[in-house]
Design a protein that fits this description.
The complex is a heterodimer of chains A (about 210) and B (about 170). Chain A has 8 helices and 8 strands, in the order H-E-H-E-H-E-H-H-E-E-E-H-E-H-E-H. Chain A has about 210 residues and is an alpha/beta fold. Classes of the chains: A alpha/beta (about 210), B alpha/beta (about 170).
Chain lengths: ~210, ~170
């Protein structure tokens, strides 16, 4: 796997499920987490469901816009988008929007394995030439970094997520598939997420 | 423009504050009107599906929104509608200017416009064509209330009968 080009850091190849667990462990203030289609949300689900998790079962590329929308609606809550490299390549424009608006409570984590793992391991442009951190910085998200190793990741996510953003972290990860399958019930996912954010409708059915 | 003022007023009456949009000539009075009004949080996005995704997140966070786009932009959101808005039951309010008919000069717009209503019908998304200032407030108000009450999206198609169409068209038609 070619080294990322921005600042030419030496980066270790990490594991998505492991990083996701490390991230979730750091969440102390009911942060919202929006996870993109496929392995990204499977590994969030596998890390242990939280009421503030949103799992995408379609609409590839929209994890960052959805998280951005949550961040606009709840400026006091930290919001994190978990997205794959193939997905963000499909939606690079949203980085320009986020770079322009600069929501201070939004953090983006890109899991970059250089392949479209779930559809048959086809190579993505990130495997050879596209540098997600360089793209994000160019789009106006100055606080964008490659993750060097597990310890560095823990340092980068040991912070308040409701301030200091927008931040983008990109990690080179291995080719392992997700380790669980998210429940495929979109209205249930939406309803529980909204209750986790305090915006769901209350009714006797909640009892 | 009276139709634009009317639409923005009805949005306010229904607590719809977020406006995500991709620029469009016909909807410029709406887009500029929202941008000039501090009530609205107005965000220009790079693509129409991004506008829809942002709206969906904002709704779940408790902020109601509308996405504005032109007909050709609508053709980019089929996946966002069919795999996000409809299955997750997101009451997205969507305003689309109608190009491609009643004095269109660009054949590309004509063809893409023909995909709009069949796409919405195929996924059973409610849509209303706004062609008359007198009936517009009723249609828009009741449909927005229905959308939020029933957890369903609604699309408003702004007909040239209402908007006068693309201001650039007259010089290009013969």
């Amino acid at each position: 796997m070619p080294a990322p080009t921005i600042d030419a850091p030496a980066v270790k190849v990490l594991n998505r499920a492991d990083l996701t667990k490390r991230l979730v462990t750091k969440l102390a203030r009911d942060e919202a987490v929006v996870a993109g289609i496929g392995n990204t949300n499977f590994d969030l689900y596998a890390a242990g469901h939280r009421p503030q998790n949103f799992y995408m079962l379609g609409s590839m590329g929209l994890a960052c816009p959805i998280a951005f929308g949550v961040a606009l609606a709840q400026p006091e809550r930290g919001v994190i988008a978990l997205e794959g490299d193939g997905s963000i390549l499909m939606a690079l424009g949203c980085l320009a929007t986020i770079g322009m608006v600069k929501p201070r409570n939004l953090t983006i984590v890109i899991m970059d394995n250089g392949i479209y793992q779930i559809t048959g391991r086809q190579k993505a442009a990130t495997a050879s030439s596209a540098d997600i951190v360089a793209i994000a910085r160019g789009a106006g998200i100055a606080n964008s970094h490659w993750v060097r190793d597990e310890k560095h990741f823990e340092e980068l996510v040991s912070r308040r997520f409701d301030d200091g953003g927008p931040v983008l972290l990109a990690a080179k990860i291995d080719d392992k598939p997700g380790i669980a399958q998210t429940v495929r019930d979109p209205p249930l996912i939406r309803n529980r997420f909204m209750r986790g954010l305090g915006t769901g409708r209350a009714s006797a059915l909640d009892a | 423009m009276a139709w634009a003022d009317s639409f923005l007023r009805t949005l306010k009456e229904n607590d719809v504050r977020l406006v995500t949009y991709v620029p469009d000539n016909v909807l410029t009075p709406l887009i500029d009107g929202a941008a000039a009004d501090n009530y609205f949080m107005s965000i220009g996005t790079t693509r129409e599906d991004e506008a829809i995704g942002t709206l969906a997140g904002a709704y779940m966070g408790g902020l109601r929104g509308v996405a504005m786009m032109q007909t050709s932009g609508f053709a980019l959101i089929a996946n966002a509608l069919a795999s996000l808005v409809v299955p997750y039951q997101i009451p997205a309010i969507i305003a689309v200017s109608e190009r491609g008919t009643l004095g269109e000069f660009n054949i590309g717009q004509v063809t893409v416009a023909r995909t709009m209503r069949p796409t919405l019908d195929a996924i059973a998304v409610e849509h209303h064509t706004l062609s008359d200032e007198a009936t517009m407030p009723f249609i828009v108000d009741k449909s927005i209330k229905q959308a939020f009450t029933t957890q369903s999206p609604v699309v408003f198609i702004f007909s040239p009968l209402l908007t006068g169409g693309n201001p650039a068209a007259a010089a290009k038609l013969r």
